[in-house]
Amino acid sequence: MNEKTPNPKALIPILVFLALYLGNGIYFEYIHPIEGGMGFYVMSVVVAFVVALIVALLQNRELSFDEKIHVCAKGIGDDNITIMLFIFLVAGAFSGIASEAGGAVSTANLLLNIIPPTFAVPGLFLIACLISMAMGTSVGTVTVLVPIAASVAASAGLNLPMCVGTVVGGAMFGDNLSFVSDTTIAATKTQGVQMKDKFRANFKIALPAAIATLVILIVISMQGGTAELQHFDYNIWQAIPYFAVLIAALCGVNVFVVLCSGTVLFLVVGLATGSLTFASAFSSMGTGTSGMFETMIVTILVASIGALMKEYGGFAAILDFIRKHSNSHKGGMFGIGFLTVLMDIATANNTVAIVLAAPIAKDISREYDIDPKKTASLLDTFSCIAQGIIPYGAQLLIAASLAGISSIRIMPFLFYQFLLIFCVCGSILLDRSKKKVG
Questions:
Q1: Within a domain: 307
Q2: Most confident of 60-64, 228-232, 430-434
Q3: Residue-number span of the structural domain to which 271 is assigned
Q4: Helix segments in 36-102, DSSP class H
Q5: Are 122 and 216 in contact (CB under 8 A)?
Q6: What is the pTM of this model?
Q7: Is position 283 within any domain?
Q8: Which residues contact 222 (CB under 8 A, 6 or more apart)?
């Protein structure tokens, strides 16, 4: 395979996207805020990427328009991109019916009733970890648990921002590790690795941060005295499918089998407990699937833009920059992390950030002999860190809105995300793994 000549101008489409999306986000969030709206979601990410794609198609007169379309088609038709799109569809259906069946609320309430009142805050963190691992969505976990966390804080006289920040931290932990998370799907499929292998690599980084977070929360809870919690209603049958999905995923069962089985389980349990009807079940699956459409369209657009930028020498330019500034195995890993964080800060969406950074990360991985499993883990972990900290990301904005506080007030209590920074940097500095040849 012939290496392309580095061409920084080939990166103009992504700069156009960042200027449009980030520029509008800053304007409508901080300069001219919209009442009741989130500034970073005024400009559609799809529209911004369409403009960037048009710019990419207008570049490089050496290729005809038909040749450029062929390059885009090859990018979209990549096996991993196709698998990723199919998984997004199934994951959407699962998420929709699971939410409608009441599984997340029942699971959270069940666990809250088991946890001793004194350890309510550490309990919220553990519950958020489990729920997000089972649901595969940090936003969904925040939406379900923040009202519960607010209720716990009010009834037990606890610090509200700390309770909310604890839920957000747990949500990012589970989303980062979940087999059914769109970030996991994007990170593994773009790097061509198995989810279980990426899970093992991620777990070694995330677990120390989670344990340290738990210790901090336990110490804070013990210093704060005994809390009094109300009883939370739950239906144990509605919680069982989530535990079944979590166990199956951890056992390495194929993600399609896990998602389809989980969907059927929720259908059966929902009908049996009366939380679903046939009409609401299929309607919720349709709603969940529709909720994935934007992510799928973005994936297609990014695959097209990425293929063109690579063809024009844009990726070669980034590699050339990394060679000059961090010419080593560990430097390449830090480069992948830095690139992912920048993409997430710019897009305020961890899945989009991974899809954007992934093809470049794959080239860096080859260049610096980085194990693809490690690359997938770095993509997911660094996007998790950035997305879980930026005050204009969906997770903090939704959490703040539900709790009736500002996202800035939550930030000092994002213990897990801050500890994860140290853990992932430490894992890079101590890393001795090399990509296996052959």
A1: no
A2: 60-64
A3: 81-290
A4: 45-58, 65-76, 79-100
A5: no
A6: 0.73
A7: yes
A8: 118
